Amino acid sequence: MAETRQRVATVDPVWTRICDEAEDAIRSEPLLGALIHSGLLHHASFERALAYRFSLKLASGEMSEQILREIADEAYADDAALGAAARADLMAVYERDPACHRFLQPVLFFKGYQAVQAYRVGHWLWQRGRIDMAYFVQMRVSEAFGVDIHPAAVIGRGIMIDHAHSIVIGETAVVGDNVSMLHSVTLGGTGKEDGDRHPKIGNGVLIGAGAKVLGNIRVGHCSRIAAGSVVLEEVPPNSTVAGVPARVVGKAGCDQPALTMDQLILPG
């Protein structure tokens, strides 16, 4: 077993660490043994564990766990980018969320992480023309996690959504890599217009709790949007915006605000 684990670690250190943490967690809390074995240790790979979690959380009287598991397994087998994105998202949560102390926490317990991975399967379905099934996944993610991401939205890697309650991301929204956002963020439209109508969020952007970014506007790379702001106009790169409506109040304060998670606005 140790020899096998060592070989796996060379190939996939993230999954090996998750399994090591899972065994430690069972030793410290035996009552979680069944949950951790079924959710993690029973599976041969990170992707298989994610597919199991997807099916377990989204199954309902309308769609069985078995069918959803087959869909997720097919998605991860077909597109290696899904697993790569899941690992990048996991590292983002671990490095940016002070409440995250182990790799297994987001996989088992953090609804923001789980919702993003479920969205990614829904997006995979959308890209392959399986529109109605993608909508079903969107519906169940919203019901199960309180996170409503349209399956057509384009979301990069290294995404961290903290707490994740009441997140809304619209159909034509684009979110870059290494973006962090907190609860109650909306990337929405401004009315009932059709077409390209949602925000385009650059790389490394930090979006504070309760912020609303509305319309087909661009938020420049490595900018900060203060909590509670309503953003209706484009945001220059490396800037901080705040207010209702939001206005530029200064520079972002660092090169990578999404990584530092610094939300303080200091006097100029």
Automatic annotation (TrEMBL):
Pathway: Amino-acid biosynthesis; L-cysteine biosynthesis; L-cysteine from L-serine: step 1/2. This is Serine acetyltransferase. Residues 14-118 form the Serine acetyltransferase N-terminal domain. It is an enzyme of class 2 (transferase). It comes from the Bacteria. Gene3D superfamilies: Hexapeptide repeat proteins (2.160.10.10), serine acetyltransferase, domain 1 (1.10.3130.10). GO terms for cellular component: cytoplasm. Belongs to the transferase hexapeptide repeat family. CDD domains: LbH_SAT (cd03354). It comes from Fuscovulum blasticum DSM 2131. GO terms for molecular function: serine O-acetyltransferase activity. Its EC number is 2.3.1.30. It holds the Pfam family SATase_N. It catalyses: L-serine + acetyl-CoA = O-acetyl-L-serine + CoA. GO terms for biological process: cysteine biosynthetic process from serine. The keyword Cell division does not apply. Keywords: Acyltransferase, Amino-acid biosynthesis, Repeat, Transferase. SUPFAM superfamilies: Trimeric LpxA-like enzymes. InterPro entries: Hexapep, Hexapep_transf_CS, LbH_SAT, Ser_AcTrfase_N, Ser_AcTrfase_N_sf, Ser_O-AcTrfase, Serine_acetyltransferase, Trimer_LpxA-like_sf. The keyword Repeat applies. Transmembrane segments: none annotated.
